[in-house]
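Quick one: co-fold with fe (ii) ion.
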Amino acid sequence: MSLQTLFPTQIYRSLLPLAFRKRWIPSLVKETKLFRDLDDEGRAWSREHYYGGYTSYSSITDLAFRSSGFADLKQWIDREVKKYASSLELDLGAGRLEMSALWLNTMGQGCHHSFHLHPLSTISGTFYLQVPKGSGEFKIEDPRLSSFMASPPRKKTAKLANLRFFSFIPRVGEMVLFESWLKHEVTANQSTSERISVSFNYDWIPARA
Ligand SMILES: [Fe+2]
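Sure, here it is.
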């Protein structure tokens, strides 16, 4: 008898080392609020498309080039993405993975981000700067969900690998990485404080000719 687990969905979670959490996070939170204050275009876009929150997704996506603090964070993220790509055994040929966007998210009371994916990118993720109690979960769904027909639900006690949905409450200084095709959502912030994070995409860049 043999039972094989095929086509696993791997997500990668990593905690920024304590010394850096202490040194970087308070200033990155401050910077986030400064960028938000300066970003008229992003605040206007968010009023239309991001109820109860602010995101620089449509306006400022090059944070690592605007701020030395976010540039330092990017260097750490780059290293973690390399480890994740290695675990996925990606064959990039002569190409490489490169961060294509890094943007800010602040989610006030009631703000949520429904299921979506990040088209055209290879690896995406989020790093958490402020996570008040009750400010929502990061939730992913089984990517095969749309193919299920007469497939029964799984037991409440099912092993992690057999679940159809998985969610967790991130910690401050934690990062989650996933393949960009994986649908994910952030459930509603039910606290009165803001949840603050930065999100990013890495694209597969072919070798230069
Ligand atoms: Fe996302």
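If it helps, Residues 18-38 form the longest helix (21 residues).
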